[in-house]
Amino acid sequence: MKVSVYGLKAVLLQPRRAATKTLRAGVRAYKAVSQSQTQHRRLIEKDREIGEMQAKIAALYEELAGRDAHIQIQHRQLIQRDEELRQARSDGGGSALRGLAEEMERSLLTLAFETIPRSASEAAYRTTPPNPGDALAPLLLPDGHRIEIAYAPGDRSVGAALVSSRGAWEPHVQRHIANSVRPDGTCLDIGAHIGAITLPLAAIASTGRVFAFEAVAANRARLLGNVAALPSPKAAIEVVGVALWDREAVLSVGWAPELAAFSYVTETALDAAAVESRLRALAPADALAAPTLHAEVGMVRSTTLDAWVKARDLDRLDLIKLDAEGSAIRVLRGAEDTLHRFKPTVIVEYTSSGSEDGGQRGDLYRALAEIFGTIAVIEPETDPTPVRSWSDLAARLEAGTGPVHLTCGWR
Q: Is residue 100 part of a domain?
């Protein structure tokens, strides 16, 4: 029997073709199983994510329930304190009466803040005070989020104002900063206190750097805690524990927890009586309702801004906020090289009651006018108003009820 070559080839290749078909079918089956396993893993991952979300929601409900219970306890305590206050008044107990009044005021401030309605996103930005005895106040950030920051209990300079305003702190200054600083900017907050401007500044310069100078150790501890709790995106923030001055020295620090934002430094030796007298001269009338001030004295090392910038090898500086409570001229004297090298925008708080340490009320304006080409008042609603002379600024201070914020620029 004759068998053609082609027929023989076809017969020989049949097993190979069958094997190839089987292999392809196996590959298709493997892909189908693999896809099914991948989908299964995805379903497991989704189920895990849903479980985590449910746990977070449950924790949030638990926190809200705890907050409600705490508010009820505060309310009962207020009722009890009110009864004790009435009894003390009828018995004529002066010291007991003052103590109860102060305690009720603190409780009312705490209760007022804790009853503020909040969204879930705001609740997520709740901080833990670095000191268990600290109080918490809201702070509104430029993006609209409201966080909580720690402050000294009984502080009427910043803490009470933040509570009463639901966290709105110098919004006109924040708007001006937002218009002056790029996200990658480098900024200094000189006189940072607990961070009411430092934190919004870090949110604005979210990819840049912020250096916060604070001379008082107690303020600095709260500032460090508030900085750590600030949610991202935020600048790289460094808290600097020195006083800026016109030379290197060891200075006296005066402060009181009731007026924590009005702390100051001086070359003069201090005692508690001198500190209280100076703080009462600096503070506005609405902050002086505290019947007593627990004045304290400390020491701090000083340096010049020029020396500090050189040591840090800064290559840019976009904005300085200067709130130095009577020491601004000293700070400016020690910053001449830095100011002329980088030409930053400088924002200075100018008070209606205070003067520079040992000088006259207009000395700071004249020092600013010698350095900067433009000086203007940052307005709440409109563009900054140019200030062309000390008489212009003096009239503005006399007409107002508090400090003005000057923005200083270069021609």
A: yes
Which amino acid, residue 46? K
Residue type, 287: A
Of 303, 217, 212, 307, nearest to 253 by C-alpha is 217
Q: Is residue 59 part of a domain?
A: yes
Count how many Cα atoms sit within 13 Å of the Cα of residue 72 in the half-sphere of its side chain. Answer: 6
- Model pLDDT for residues 140-154, shown as the tens digit of each residue: 999 889 999 999 998
Taking only the tens place, the pLDDT of each residue in 11-42 is 555 666 676 777 777 667 777 766 767 776 77
Q: pTM for this one?
A: 0.70
Separation of alpha carbons 139 and 281, rounded Å = 27
Q: Are residues 287 and 378 in the same domain?
A: yes
Q: Helices 5-91 and 94-114 sit at what angle, rounded to 10 degrees?
A: 160
234 token code pair = 């935020």
**pLDDT over 50 at 110, yes or no:** no
β-bridge partners, 43: none
> Sign of dihedral through CA atoms 255, 257, 260, 262?
negative
Instruction: Looking at the structure, tell me whether residues 45 and 109 fall in a common domain.
Output: yes
Give residue 84's domain range.
24-115
Number of domains in the chain: 2
**From the DSSP assignment, how many helices (H) and strands (E) are in the chain?**
13, 14
Residue 194, token pair as written in the block: 């607990």
Q: Could you tell me if residue 61 is inside a domain? A: yes
42 in a structural domain: yes
Residue 244 shares a structural domain with residue 99: no
* pLDDT tens-digit readout, 324-374: 988 999 999 999 999 999 999 999 999 875 555 556 789 999 999 999 999
∠ at Cα 148 (145, 63), nearest 5°?
95
Reported residue count of the chain is: 411
Element at 90 (helix H, strand E): helix 5-91
Distance CA 128, CA 225 (A): 8
On whether both 353 and 246 belong to a single domain, the answer is: yes
